[in-house]
Amino acid sequence: HDIYGINKWGRDLIVVDDAGEIALKNPMNPSAPAVSLPDILEDLDDRGIQVPIVLRVSSYLEHEIRHMNECFQQAIERVGFQGKYRGVFPIKVNQQAQVVDRIVEFGRPYDYGLEAGSKPELVIALAHRLAKDALIVCNGIKDEEFIRLAILSRKLGFNTVIVLESPKEVETVIEVASELDVDPMLGVRVKLTNQISGKWEKSSGDRSAFGLNTDQLVSMVDKLRDAGLLHCLKLQHSHLGSQVPDVNDVRRAVNEACRFYTELTGEGVPLTHLDLGGGLGVDYTGEKRATESSINYTMREYCTNVVETVKYAMDEAGVDHPTLVTESGRAVVATSSMLIFNVLEATHYDAPTAPKAQENDHHLISDLLAITEYISGERLQECWNDANFYRNELRALFHRGSIDLRQMARAERIYLHLMARIKQHAGFDDIAISDDQLTQLADIYHCNFSLFQSLPDVWAIDQLHPIVPLQMLHTPPDRHAVLTDITCDSDGKVDRFILADGVKRSLPVHTLPENKPYYLGVFFVGAYQETLGDLHNLFGDTNVVTIDLRDDGGFDLLHEQEGDTISEVMSYVEFDPQDCVAEFRKMVDEAISTRRIKSKDRKVLMDAYRESINGYTYYE
Ligand code: PLP
């Protein structure tokens, strides 16, 4: 029974193998055997690479790029669209070199380009040999330096488009272009009035931060015409948003974008490219519904809707079909990375046995113990109510000094035993008590990762990711848990989980095996998470490993990026690790001088300090 809904969200890429382990299927060769994730971890551990690990699967990245480009190409052919598709990858969604370099490589056959939203991102884009027809689309707020570099890059043959986002930028472009005497490739960001539903609703509509409104758009056209640069305005950009849940919102927004495009063409603007920005979503829950963490469409459907809507709108207005551009980030990279960590220990909120009655028991303790005699499926709620009532009364007596510590401990133990019995009766499939109540009884599994470093969106915007045990999946889970991370922050917890029958507040898990690691995997973390993460409690970057899935069921390790050492994270917060070693050594020597420690203690102390400073920031 697939309680975690892996068949729904795993999309045949993430599956459970015969051994009950999470395994990765190679989408580039569906007949190849799936590779067990715990086997990969064991192999990496043998090589000295420890969890927590971000595992990047290169084959998934290649697959998503191919799939998206092919879906657009097939839609173009099916609909009879005359234009081409030229996608760009927004670097901000995952700026890591190993990711960007591979995207450029896998995208080359499709003239896939890059989107830069800042100067550093443009600098990265210009360090890549893109295909001849690929675009570099420059969005965001641009200063003169940004604009100068973008225009100059045209001399090297880059198709760098400066998307004008504000009236001020128009002035700067006119100045720099005339000074350099190079024709820039220009775009304009047109603000759509259609608001798109979902988590990122505010990035669309009138109050969105970027783009020109209709009035500013008309002024810009006039200004460029006056400056003799209107012939350079080739691209209209209308960003649809991010993680758009409902495909009908896509149609509506694309339709509005087309209205602007055809109107601008009518004004004599020689547009050739229509850029629809991001928005293509990821079905994190696998529900296939228009919710915050799911989408009611496939990639194929998205592409068809976009191409069809643009074709109809252009045909109706008698305008040539444009080259279509999208800036999908999330859908391209989310699947390719997963975060894997081990569970360090568990805190239980139940006790397997109850203490026996004692003669001197307070009568409320006897009442609490009596519940064990009438606990049953039909009376669960009543038992829950009684147990909480008596336990709270006993706590009040303890606070007033009427019962002692040992009596209170007996009461708490009886209570925890009652909770264990209630959980037993509630069962795992047919829960007779609420999800909320079950969460109060759930274990806390303390895990070896930092939420703030590795899953910042879970903390900041309640993003949901599938989280599952990587092993024992043929053994029914016998416990429920919420997860806490290794930071000393009570916010560092995960208590919303995607399960087959909806989002629940605790995760079904197994009793932790003895002498064996128990791994959990968090999936679809390739978009936005790596760079948004921060150094809370100085937990640094995790180890990052890029692998390729082989046809024989094995894997190749393509690249390893060691996680931050303690000395590295210290230097990020302005400490000089060498100075710290020297200061520590001074204190050791002073302790020897004042005879608080022996000379031979020096080596032990210095070795321990040095070993820590050079080590991984996570639990080793
Ligand atoms: N393009 C622009 C201008 C954006 O602001 C964003 C993100 O919001 C994207 C592209 C990428 O969007 P997504 O990751 O939803 O595809």
UniProtKB/TrEMBL annotation:
The residue ranges of the Arginine decarboxylase C-terminal helical domain are: 566-619
Query: What GO MF annotations does this protein's record show?
Result: arginine decarboxylase activity; metal ion binding
Is the keyword Metal-binding assigned to this protein?
A: yes
Q: What sections of the protein cross the membrane? A: none
The main enzyme category here is: lyase
> Which Enzyme Commission numbers does its entry carry?
4.1.1.19
Residue ranges of the Arginine decarboxylase helical bundle domain? 358-426
Which Pfam family, any one, appears in the UniProt record?
Answer: Arg_decarbox_C
List each copy of the Orn/DAP/Arg decarboxylase 2 N-terminal domain by range.
74-334
Active site located where? C488 (proton donor)
- Which terms are listed as keywords in the entry? Decarboxylase, Lyase, Magnesium, Metal-binding, Polyamine biosynthesis, Pyridoxal phosphate, Spermidine biosynthesis
Give cofactor(s), names only: pyridoxal 5'-phosphate; Mg(2+)
Answer yes or no on keyword Lyase. Answer: yes
Q: Which InterPro entries match?
A: Ala_racemase/Decarboxylase_C, Arg_decarb_HB, Arg_decarbox_C, Arg_decrbxlase, De-COase2_N, De-COase2_pyr-phos_BS, Orn/DAP/Arg_de-COase, PLP-binding_barrel
Q: Which residues carry this modification: N6-(pyridoxal phosphate)lysine?
A: K92
Q: Which residues form a coiled coil?
A: none
Q: What GO terms in the biological process aspect are recorded for it?
A: L-arginine catabolic process; spermidine biosynthetic process
Q: Which family does it belong to?
A: Belongs to the Orn/Lys/Arg decarboxylase class-II family. SpeA subfamily.
What is this protein's function? Catalyzes the biosynthesis of agmatine from arginine.
Q: What is this protein identified as? A: Arginine decarboxylase
Source organism per entry reads Cognatishimia maritima
